[in-house]
Design a protein that fits this description.
By secondary structure, the chain is an all-alpha fold. It has one domain. It has three helices and no strands. α1 packs parallel to α3. It comes from Haloactinomyces albus. This is Lysylphosphatidylglycerol synthetase-like protein (DUF2156 family). Keywords: Membrane, Transmembrane, Transmembrane helix.
């Protein structure tokens, strides 16, 4: 009986690519979108003030630091700016017509 050597069976392991951290950009985008949504509601819009300011801050830091997720950071800054603008318009409207 002849013995045929078998080749060792193995599965080639591909290197695992971990996703890059995009936490600040994602947080900026989420806060900006929520800030815009809340800013259109007259009394609930008070929640929009801190959300839009946080969106602007996190998006600005993320863009300045060249962190990954540049598009999400830009979205956060843009939506945060729009939300803050709407909040300021509400304040001006309430000051102009005190009721």
């Amino acid at each position: 009986m002849s013995h045929v050597p078998q080749q060792p069976s193995f599965i080639p392991v591909m290197p695992v690519r971990h996703p890059e951290p995009k936490g600040m950009a994602v947080a900026s985008m989420v806060c900006g979108i929520l800030g815009v949504l809340f800013s259109f509601v007259p009394l609930v819009g008070l929640v929009a003030w801190p959300l839009t300011i946080v969106a602007l801050a996190l998006g600005g830091v993320s863009l300045y630091s060249n962190l990954p997720g540049r598009g999400m950071a830009i979205t956060g800054v843009a939506t945060g700016s729009v939300g803050l603008f709407v909040c300021v318009l509400w304040v001006l409207l309430f000051l102009a017509y005190p009721g």
